[in-house]
TrEMBL record:
Organism phylogeny: Eukaryota, Viridiplantae, Streptophyta, Embryophyta, Tracheophyta
PANTHER family: GERMIN-LIKE PROTEIN SUBFAMILY 3 MEMBER 3
Family: Belongs to the germin family.
Signal sequence region: 1-20
Coiled-coil intervals: none
Principal location class: secreted
Entry keywords, A to Z: Apoplast, Disulfide bond, Manganese, Metal-binding, Secreted, Signal
Protein name per the record: Germin-like protein
Organism: Heracleum sosnowskyi
Residue positions binding oxalate: 104, 109, 114
Disulphide bond pairs: 30-45
Length: 215
């Protein structure tokens, strides 16, 4: 019986760890202390007696991001840099602006699930399931629609309207990370060997070389 209880306890513990995104806080809050030199999994805490309301707020999310770039989109983050009080709370937020036909190119968040709400415009969104199926699950979203991108999966958005579009997305980590696929594969430093990429993408070496030069 004791062995069974221990086994059940270990299963419960491993399940709770597997479901968690960021570790849960051990106190009411841990406002990030930006001047601290301490390195840990998260940011060091400010003295609670020095905490102010400004540590938990951010102004400016109503301001549109500049989308005059190659992909036609701009991500404005609201994470611990913008709101120190988010530290250890396991969430963050972004505003995404899209020029007409602009894209938020295929990328992943290695540490977070994303839930996106369209505020203005119409977006094509999608994510790709893992090997071996690599199934694309996509949908056209209208104003007020919500879509979820599961943690770690490659996903994208594209403005399919003739006007600007904007969305707000929540992420289940204070530091979700972002890996833009094209940048990671073709813009690594140093470069991934062209021979590797030629075999991986099954294209001519000149195409790989030309693509790497753009990143």
């Amino acid at each position: 019986m004791a062995s069974l209880i221990i086994l059940i306890g270990l299963i419960a513990l491993s399940s709770s760890l597997a479901m968690a995104a960021d570790h849960g806080p051990l106190q009411d809050f841990c406002v990030a202390e930006s001047s601290s030199q301490v390195l840990l999994n998260g940011l060091a805490c400010k003295n609670p007696s020095m905490v102010q309301a400004s540590d938990f707020s951010f102004s400016g999310l109503h301001i549109a991001g500049n989308t005059s770039n190659a992909v036609g989109s701009r991500v404005t983050p609201v994470a611990t840099t913008q709101i120190p009080g988010l530290n250890t709370l396991g969430i963050s937020l972004v505003r995404i602006d899209y020029a007409p036909w602009g894209i938020n190119p295929p990328h992943t968040h290695p540490r977070a699930t994303e839930i996106l709400t369209v505020i203005e415009g119409n977006l094509e969104v999608g994510f790709v399931t893992s090997n071996p199926d690599n199934r694309l699950i996509s949908k056209i979203l209208n104003k007020g629609d919500v879509f979820v991108f599961p943690i770690g999966l490659v996903h994208y958005q594209r403005n399919v309207g003739s006007g600007n579009a904007m969305a707000i997305a929540g992420l289940s980590s204070q530091n979700p990370g972002v890996i833009t696929i094209a940048n990671a594969v073709f813009g690594s430093k140093p470069d991934i060997s062209t021979d590797i990429l030629v075999r991986a993408f099954q294209v001519d070496k000149s195409i790989i070389t030309n693509t790497q030069s753009k990143f």
